[in-house]
Write a structure and sequence with these properties.
Layout (H helix, E strand, L loop, with lengths): L1 E11 L4 E3 L11 H8 L3 E3 L7 H16 L8 E5 L10 H8 L6 E5 L5 H14 L5 E9 L17 E12 L8 E9 L7 E3 L12 E3 L1 H23 L8 E4 L4 H11 L10 H4 L6 H11 L8 E8 L3 E8 L1
Parallel strand pairs: 4-5, 4-6, 11-12
Antiparallel strand pairs: 1-7, 2-3, 6-7, 8-13, 9-10, 12-13
Length: 323
Amino acid sequence: MIRSAIIGCGSYSPERVMTNADFEGLVDTSDEWIVQRTGIRQRHIASEGETTADLGEKAARAALADAGIGIDQVDLIILATSTPNNTFPATAVEIQHRLGMTHGAAFDSQAVCSGFIFALTTADQYIRTGYAKTVLVIGAETFSRLLDWTDRTTCVLFGDGAGAVVVSAVEGEGTSADRGILTAHLRSDGAHRDKLYVDGGPSTTGTIGHLRMEGREVFRHAVGMITDVIEAAYAATGLGSDDIDWFIPHQANRRIIEASAKKLGIPAEKTVITVDRHGNTSAASIPLALAHTVREGKIRRGDLLLLEAMGGGFTWGSVLLRW
């Protein structure tokens, strides 16, 4: 059977770094308060004029170089983002043009912090059905543009960045030993919309709006929802937490990550945490964490990776893959 394997990854973070101390002059907060509640110590912020397309393009070029292929070998580009350059066209087509791709197709996927999981799952479906052989999947965000910089409960949480992977068709035997994506599970529930949303949009206010969040409610639902899609992945493959080599969750909050890993029985040494240096970069967080772990030389061929995320909507999902 056909599997979808990641053959290259890359990332990019803006040069400007904003530490927790930088917020002490903006809102009533402190480094101790932020670290204790979130685990975040710093985040990268896009400079004036630096856009989601800029970040995504750089991450995409890094992923293509890591895969050792040219853009002519890519059939499709999927960009996961909640902060596009324009309402339309899709920011993916701008990145497509910048990369010199004049064939195939490109489009955006919007599932907020679960965006990369949704986009990667979509790429897997295109590959498994034979529509595409190689797909470039990007998660890129400039969330700093959505923040209310007077709201201490949200402005300290988010950062900007981009990550990308090249996914390509490989042959498998149909077993859990195959290389590539073994199973993926997506969920959403619009009943929770008001717990994490942006209070603007073209069809409502005609403005960009600002991010609004009920932090305690998000935390309360997060661990259970994450467990749901991970247990679904285990049921689909016959695998379990003992088989996982690397748990790479959405990097939103260290406490949520640690609580989820503990509930699932995944040890801390197998859990990737980069939220301390990037903050919550929404759809970019998983590919950023993945690229960071690959650069450190920790992930090896044959390792079993568990990816998961939860975002506004609510949306949530998991991908279980073999490297």
